Amino acid sequence: MQSSAFTLSLTPFRKPFLHHLSVSSSSFISSFSSKANIINVDSSFSCSFIRQPATPSWPLSSSSSFKLPSDRFVPKAAAESASENRSSGGDVLLRALKLGALFGLWIIFNIYFNIYNKQVLKVYHFPITVTAVQFAVGAALVSFMWCSNLYKRPNLSGAQLAAILPLAVVHTLGNLFTNMSLGKVAVSFTHTIKAMEPFFSVILSAMFLREMPTALVIGSLVPIAGGVALASATEASFNWTGFWSAMASNLSNQSRNVLSKKLMVKEEESMDNITLFSIITVMSFLLTAPLTLIMEGFIFTPAYLHSAGLNVKQVYIRSFLAAFCFHAYQQVAYMILQWVSPVTHSVANCAKRVVVIVSSILFFRTPVSLVNAIGTVIALAGVFFYSRVTGTKPKTT
């Protein structure tokens, strides 16, 4: 009568001599009961015991000592875990590099926009035309991306266009007033005044969205207002037109943010920020083109520039570069907003404003007094504090 035998199959091993290890039932049971620690099988391995007719086998007695070489295999679960960790670490590193590159481009485009734009406005005193040129270049870039399928062209309904139109109007006014301010005062002073944006954001949100600010938010507005007042009182290039233009820009830009929350609740559900910005850019060009002809006329021709004693080539190149950087830095800003939280974006915007102010002071050699510098630092510190405390959910009534 033939005796039964059990075959122990170790599937993770690929060596030929370990494919099938046959063990007689009596010797296996005897060995396993007396020396249970001879063979340990990890739970990640699969072991199959198959009853089959007896065949010539390799008996493993209780006195046998058999070791599995540790350098011949890696547990499956450990290998998968290590692979996942490497993949996760690589993804985190790649994300950090991309985000760092976007932040760098955002700052660089912003710096060059302010430098080229100021150089143009110092010799060409027509801010509406300059604004129209910037929107024209932006609209051309948007059209190119849509036509070349670099970005999906949106299909808009009449209700969506009607909801976006007010945003385009205040967006146009915000950039127009910024250019008017840059044409009258130093770049550093314009951006110091624009640090007052949180002040308008809190007021407009309370009035139209019924979002009541916290005590910390209100407290953060005190150093902002005080710092701007101190910087304005000691600004060498102070001009009331430049001051009120920058304040009007703050009001316009924050009105855009409030309107986007109030009017675009349903219409914006299927529209990302970059698409919305692209549509607003095209609309802004259509709004500024006729306004330019009515208010300033067609005075961007080579003949007019030459008659005004300007370097035509230089004005054209700097205007194009300023317009390109203007569109690029705003588009990159929306791309960053898709990667980070609004609070992180606001803090980064504060840091970006500091870099723009410092770089413009160095490039244009703007005279800055100690009191003026202290006022600017206080205002920017208030903006930074505001950016941090806005993470607290405001009360609504």
What radius of gyration results from the CA coordinates?
Answer: 34 Å
Mean model confidence by pLDDT: 79
Please write the string of helix (H) and strand (E) elements: EEHEHHHHHEHHHHHHHE
Tell me the total number of β-strands. 5
Q: Could you say which structural class the secondary elements and strand pairing correspond to?
A: mainly alpha
| Biggest sheet overview | 3 strands, antiparallel
The neighbouring-strand order within the major sheet is 2-1-3
Percent range of helical residues:
55-70%
Label the overall shape.
globular
How many independent structural domains? 2
- Uncertain spans: 1-74, 393-397
Cα-to-Cα separation, first versus last residue:
91 Å
- Strand fraction: 5-15%
Instruction: Count up the helices.
Output: 13
GO cellular component, one term: chloroplast membrane
Keywords: Chloroplast, Membrane, Plastid, Transit peptide, Transmembrane, Transmembrane helix, Transport
GO molecular function: organophosphate ester transmembrane transporter activity; phosphoglycerate transmembrane transporter activity
InterPro entries: EmrE-like, Sugar_P_trans_dom, Tpt_PEP_transl, TPT_transporter
